[in-house]
Specification:
By secondary structure, this protein is of the alpha+beta class. The protein has one domain (about 25-125). It is about 45% helix and about 15% strand. It contains four helices and three strands, in the order αβαααββ. The chain has helices at about 5-25, 50-65, 80-90, 100-105, and strands spanning about 25-35, 110-115, 120-125. It has a three-stranded antiparallel sheet with strand order 1-2-3, covered by helices on one side. α2 (about 50-65) packs across α4 (about 100-105). The longest helix is centred in the first third of the chain and has 22 residues, at about 5-25. The chain is globular and about 40 Å long. The relative contact order is 0.19.
């Protein structure tokens, strides 16, 4: 095989791998949610300690308990207890939200945007 042909094959393989990894985590959609005081407490009233727990509780409040804040939007992904547990696990992984976003959620009532991908989620603060 010539050098140029080998480079072309290597380039094609690299492009295929990059395209394949991009498809592995396609964006499914996003929603907005206000993380209010009611999201800082579990359903049975005890205080939550992490941003991941609070975002999960927001979705439980939306889907299960119908306790919705005015800024909250619905989503088709986190309807079940199991899918909300998956949400929390994904949020606890590094990279799902910045430390500033975590602090804002734990210490306040920010408006957040949750971007949902096939294998991950990302949370950011929306300036309102």
């Amino acid at each position: 095989m010539t050098v140029s042909k080998a480079m072309a094959v290597a380039g094609l393989v690299a492009a295929t791998l990059v395209a394949g990894s991009a498809r592995a985590d396609d964006m499914l959609g996003s929603y907005l949610a206000r993380i209010s005081d009611r999201d800082h407490r579990a359903s049975d009233g005890y205080p939550l300690s992490s941003a991941a727990q609070m975002v999960r509780q927001d979705r439980a409040n939306w889907h299960k308990f119908h306790r919705r804040d005015g800024d909250d939007q619905g989503d088709p992904w986190f309807r079940s207890d199991g899918s909300r547990a998956d949400l929390q696990r994904m949020l606890e992984r590094g990279g799902a939200m910045s430390s500033a976003t975590r602090r804002a959620i734990v210490n306040g009532e920010p408006l957040i945007e949750v971007d949902v991908y096939s294998d991950s989620v990302r949370v950011s603060i929306v300036e309102d």
